[in-house]
Amino acid sequence: MKPQRRMKYLGVLLAVALAAAVAKGAGESSEGTMQMTPVEIEFPKDHRFHSNRNEWVYFSGTVTTAEGREFGVMFTVFQFPSGAGRYGYPAMLGISDLETSKSYSVRIPGQNGSAGATAEGLPSIVAGNSKFVWGSNDTLHIGSSTRTADGTGIAVDMKMTPTRDILYHGGNGFILMGDGIPSGYFSLTNLLPTGGTLTIGEQQYNVTGGRMWMDRQWGDWTGAGYIWDWFSLRFDDGGALMLFQFRDAMDRVVMGNWTYRDKEGRVRYGDDFKVVAKRKFKTYPIDWTVTLPSIEAKFEIKPVFDDQTFTGLWEGLCLVTGRIGTSRLSGEAFVELNGY
Questions:
Q1: Using CA atoms, how far apart are residues 207 and 148, in angstroms rounded to an integer?
Q2: What does the domain layout of the chain look like in residue ranges?
Q3: What is the CB neighbour count within 10 angstroms for residue 142?
Q4: Is residue 26 scored above 50 in pLDDT?
Q5: What angle do CA 63, 170, 327 make, to 5 degrees?
Q6: Neighbour count for residue 308 (Cβ, 10 Å)
Q7: Helix H or strand E segment including 222
Q8: N or C: which end of the chain has fewer CB within 10 A?
Q9: Would you state the CATH architecture of domain 3-21+40-338?
């Protein structure tokens, strides 16, 4: 591997695995070297965290406030091995302010925490100032507070209710990552925020609505499986489309998959799609045209503003227009670009 490619590859591992959270034993234990064999997903067991090398719960979407504002929100809690059978729980929090075209984001290093369960057997994850608790009555509660590099305090404390069934990816809830190792993967694509607060600096906003998406993913893939472009399209009619495109260290697309659920609840799966970016922001390709021949789909995806970056990631709210067959569709999307 050429030196510049080797450095890029190492940068991907450091950025995604949040190396501050992973001790020297991570991935080297007998548990970490095991490759997960896909089995039938069972609930509530698989709502809870597992004992794999990689795991996270990821939320992204939009919230509206009583003050008449709209924000993009991304929140993730990871679980990575930290040696001797223990785990670290790093997190990420990002807020995009559509009115000012400014994003606030921070990676929160590995924290001591716990990934337990409620009395109903649902997840209860608390680590430092971050938490994800799935309580009774179909209420998901997330919270995190931290400071960005410039000292701006940001926080989210929000409850959500699922309004559609779980969406399994890969047909049975398992997909292959870029290195060919399987990952458990399912989503809640329509989470309705039912209350809470969002804070930027000294200003606190009261959350009254919006639409959020939750991803649950876990497995034992390697660093080569961490180089990807991920798109989640949330259509105004209630439908949803997820596209996962994996690249190698030379930025060549090596595999991908998609899941589409229409407004009636019908689900289709495939791997035939193409993503073409029209321009770049810094090193990140943006302004995409996405085509899926088997369902006669074509979409234009544009960021609400360009500068929605983390260290090593472009992670941002976008707008979507396009069609499937003769049906016109529009809505919003969240896009994550990793490894550029």
A1: 21
A2: 3-21+40-338
A3: 27
A4: no
A5: 60
A6: 28
A7: none
A8: N
A9: Beta Barrel (2.40)
Neighbours of 279 (CB within 10 A): 10
**Mean pLDDT of all residues belonging to the chain:** 89
- C-alpha 192/C-alpha 211 separation (Å) is 5
Sequence letter at residue 101: S
Q: Which strand (E) or helix (H) includes residue 337?
A: strand 327-338
Q: If you average pLDDT over residues 141-163, what whole number do you get?
A: 96
Name 35's Cβ contacts closer than 8 Å, sequence gap at least 6: 181, 182, 220
Rounded to whole angstroms, the Cα distance separating 131 from 290 reads 35
pTM above 0.85, yes or no: yes
| Residue 244 neighbours by CB under 8 Å, 6+ apart | 169, 175, 228, 229, 230, 231, 256, 257, 258
Share of the chain above pLDDT 90, in %: 81
CB of 167 within 8 A of CB of 188?
A: yes
Q: Which amino acid is at 53?
A: R
Question: How far is Cα 186 from Cα 46, in angstroms, rounded to an integer?
Answer: 10
SS3 335: strand
Note the pLDDT of residue 332: 98
Residues across the chain: 340
User: What average pLDDT does range 102-121 have in this prediction?
Assistant: 91
> Secondary structure of the chain: what % helix, strand, coil (to 5)?
10, 60, 35
**C-alpha span between 140 and 61 (Å, rounded):** 15
Q: How confident is the model at residue 21 (pLDDT cuts 50, 70, 90)?
A: very low
pLDDT of residue 72: 98
Asked whether 220 and 34 are in contact (CB, 8 A), the reply is yes
Locate 43 and state its tokens. Answer: 């609930």
Name which of 332, 328, 321 is nearest 61 in CA terms.
332
- Name the nearest CA neighbour of 271 among 304, 306, 295: 295
